[in-house]
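Methods, example record. To illustrate the input and output format used throughout this study, we show the complete record for UDP-N-acetylmuramoylalanine--D-glutamate ligase. The sequence lines were provided to the predictor; the line carrying structure tokens was produced by it.
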Amino acid sequence: MSTLTNQLPNLHDGPAAVLGAGVSGKGAQALLRSQGAWVNLFDEKGAHSAKTDFTERDAQHHRLVIYSPGFKPDHPWLERARQAGADIYGELDFASLYWPGALVAVTGANGKTTLTQFLVHALKQSGTDSFAAGNVGFPLSRFFETGGAEHTVAVCEVSSFQAEGLRALRPQAVLWTNFAEDHLERHGSMLQYFSAKWRLIERLRRPRLIVGRSVVEWADRLGFVLPSYTIVVDEAGVSSPAGSPFAGPPQRENYGLARAYWESEHLDLSILEQAAYNFDLPAHRLELIAEYDGVRFWDDSKATNFHAAEAALAAMDGPVVWIGGGRRKGGDITAFAQRIAPKINYACLIGESAADLSVALSNAGVTVHRSPELTSAVQDAWVHHPNRGNILLSPGFSSHDQFTSYADRGECFRRAVLSLKGATPATTVTQCVKP
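The corresponding predicted structure is encoded as:
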């Protein structure tokens, strides 16, 4: 049982409410039931037969409320629960009360999924049981019955949505990859966004804090003082294994963060280096899809913010036709356009942000074309491709205007690219956009 046993809520005072019937909510429901609790599920869309409203009467009736990360802190359901005096936890936070093993938290604007999965991969190769949880893989609440859990390391990718309301989770280490404009539609300002992630530092159980250089810069800018034990990783000074997925940017910084953690835990560096060689990057992260007539097609659909798209453009060797756009997450589009304009020969724009992005890039001197959807954008990019250059999908925006996920967007791009040379029938790419 967790060392936080004295913090465990009384699950038998009455029913518990789970808000949200997605992956996190169902995980919380399973954990609560495993502990003998009576659970009621609430979801605005009514998924899994959940109740579609959490009324004031419901709030009075439920003394414990667990919510999914999609719920903003000021969501009316959470406000009702607070006013009723309920005990409120986010799913990850609540699950940590029942997790008896070590827990490493990984956060950042970009790179956190890759770093999380690489650490799990390397720890397993070192002989340590480990798994990825949180914002990647499965929710932590799904691992409450893991055998030998007290000797297992949970590497949790923690988003700002999950971090902002923490009150129980106590990580043994925090790795913060970087900080840049993202999720401002939720947090409202860079200060609030940084403060949400800072909550992880406040919850640290041991002096194990490893951050990228941009975190230091933003901490100084926003008035935060990093602890004296902070280890700062500067990508320019990282020596990563040549020939591995981490050999160059933007992955070199991830290796530097992993290495700093490895050294802080006095683990064998040769194992980490070998793990780097046999690690496969997750899909849709600057992935080379095809090369036709000297033109390389890159799928970087995971680039859902400005910082990620800029990193991908910086990694390109040769001229670039850029495919970008999608649902806005806040941030200064004009400044973004001015930063990327010198790296782009031609831009094919899609999604809700295409109109504003078109104006900003045009004003910055870039020739642009707006496409109704991704398939036609790929076809237009092929018509305007540079000689022996790159066609890069690195959108810089969320996929949720036209796709169900960044992975869905990446798969649509792959099919559209393959259809250019007949490797995939053109008819298979016409249904990419969600209804």
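Annotations derived from this record:
The chain has three domains: 5-93, 99-277, 287-429.
The first strand starts at residue 16 and ends at 19.
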